[in-house]
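Sequence in, structure out.
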Amino acid sequence: MSKKNLLVEIHNSGKPYIIYKSEKGFNLYTDFDRKIVLNNKNIKKFLNKKNNGSSKSTDLFIGFFGYELLNNLININIPKQKNINFPKGIFYKPNKIIKLSNTLNYQNHENYKEGIFKININKKSYAKIFNKFKKKIKSGETYQIKICTKYKKKSKINPLDFFSRLSKTNLAPEAFMIRDKNYSIVSCSPENLITKKGFNISTKPIAGTVKKTKSLTKAKALNFFKKNLKETKEHNMIVDMERNDLSRICEVGSVKLAKQKTVEEYKDLFHYVSLIKGKLKKNVKNVDIIRAMMPGGSVIGCPKINTLNLLNNQEKENRNIYTGSFGFIKFNGDMRFNIIIRSILNYKNISEISVASGVVVDSNSRHEFNENFIKAKALIDLFK
């Protein structure tokens, strides 16, 4: 049986599976023999599992940490918010991994046009929150903060259809999908938060976004970022913060900028990206790495702890998966995690898309609100 037909057979069987972007294509994870639903009480036990030298490709747990779970792990309190009772995190132990090509030729496009997306914060409400946070920036309580907006629509989805189409139009290096019995996640996340192999660790912060136009080439986008004071300041702050996060768990002097201020191209936009590498201290555990690096600073703001408290007191709804992390932890301690952005969560036949843009002292409210829509557009277009 071809791998294409095998993917369709697994999808049609109804059993859970995960697809995650790899360097040369995609990896399909299935035949799970364990499913661990995480909460505030068991996450440390899960992360403190003793590493061993196992080298089997299936000796790993793959899944996600939700935003609220990660806040609790670093002792950040979240006031009572509206929530949909979605699990705080889920990890799976696969018995089978199948390598797929870069092109997922699944064709079963259904009609998703019924109903419309509703936004939880309109332009006027966004401006009020924006101005409130600008005052916090001017008073020195934060230097950059990410205002989250959420688009919701009642709709069933076929996650493989969505993911297959995304892989053709908006292929991202951290793209993934999960299909389980009562929920699905489809993501074209571009941002790698942690890649750990042995004692080597890296992170790839993204801070800076510009909308694509017919005349704006990749080279012109780079020139725009370099000349734009607002985008440069935003990028520098996030890079410095993530260097600091890595320094907490790495050997002194080992944290270096491997690539600085490059541009990556996506369907509707260009991103401003850097790459930071370091060498871990010998006594660092999995839980130390997760606590130091998550939630990812590029989607929160700076400084992290103060800004998390400001956000959590402002937001009225749980973020659920948004700005959490998806990836895997191998039994030998190696790991790879992204930041969950550019994602659709479908739970109880409600589709949820969350996006955020950064506010610094010289930001413009209308520009940031529109940037949020640009980020959501590639996902909203899947429902047409």
